[in-house]
Fold:
Amino acid sequence: MNPAVQRFLPRTTLACALACSLPAVAAQAPPATLEEMWKIVQQQQKEIEGLKAKAAQADALQEEVKSLRQAQSAPAPEKSKATDADRKTQILATEVEKLKSQLVIPDKREYKSLYGFGPAASGVYRVNSGLSIGGYGEAIYTNYTSHKGEQRDQFDLVRAVLYAGYKFNDWIILNNEIEFEHATTGEGSESKGEVSVEFSQLDFFLHPKANVRAGLMLMPMGFINEMHEPTTFHGTHRPDVERYIIPATWREMGAGLFGEILPGLQYRMYAVNGLNARDFTSAGIRDGRQGGSKALAENFAFTGRLDYIPPFAPGVLVGGSAYVGDAGQADPVLGRHTSIKTQLYEGHLQWHYKGLEFRALGAWGHVGDAGLLSAANGEPIGKENFGWYTEAAYDLMPLIWSDSSQYLAPFIRYERYDSLAKLPAGVLDDGSFDRRIYQAGLSYKPIPNVVIKADYRNISSAAGQNPHEFNLGLGFIY
Structure:
């Protein structure tokens, strides 16, 4: 190889790598705060320094390869020395190729939420083609500090999740989430653990304003149902309002559309199989989810969501969603033609400003013919239910260590919900599902992919005190 080309190659490779990275950076949403901008600048500087170091290594290795090749061209007094030089040359040449590959294809992944999914679940949308692998996991230790009753302290590997996606071409993408809960599926009890397909869907990208999605899909409601990776929310446990009033994780079979109507104005709307009202309980509609497992489809439902991220107000997101459908499913006990119209509506607001993070969400639901359903199910079923919560957090790390890219945020959250807010005539309520939760805790991220959590939850109901909890949690995405 021409010596000038050898000297020029590593620097050209570095320049290409930097040039390739600039569009990706430019495509990202602008940072909402100066602290975020400073963290991005620091991260980019570290990557540039790393690339420069690798280029320098490549230069040195190229020179060593050149020297060895020159030594090979000279007469060798002994055959063993020539053989040794050949071996060293091959090893060094291989290392040079590895360094060049790392310069052109960085081994660091970008984590950014797309099309309503969490950062890790969005990985398949960022690959050029073929297979994409990702996932997340979370483990929790719970200590019941008071009003313990029959509860016992425990450790739990709550879930370990695998994302497996495939990009067939520029406009057809498959995305799957497979979840393993509670570390095992044995010992004859679902509560001991289970394996579930959380979603499995095909996206057909036709136009930025209108794309098609079909399969087992997450209902586009609230903050948590679609974006439930542990690094995306505070607290070891997901908010109870988004577990019982909005029954996350909630997925059904169907098809629909998604896209961006105007800059910052995004929507998702699907037609799906309805819930199964015969599985509703006093705790709400949660057990009525069918999850794509031989789902009854005598009745259908419709759900939609609209979000707005104002270009003039960085860090703000405001939106709402709705679900309306029949949950009767031609059940013979209820009467094959009985309609159990089920409705759920929610609104949400999120604001990030400098180190401040704020969330608020409210939801209201209605179940038709709740009196008939209460008699058939053998327990009170709420004619109406509601829930809301507010949450605030602040990242202290820029105040403690200004040059750090780590994250340390105390947070507080208040929840109020009642799954039996309004009952049919003659049905009584003991107040146990009319709850208030006061929660405070801390979230620490040594890197963006890993979070360590601690929190305390004070839970009370109209029927009396529930067990209070101290929780420690560990979560990760990849």
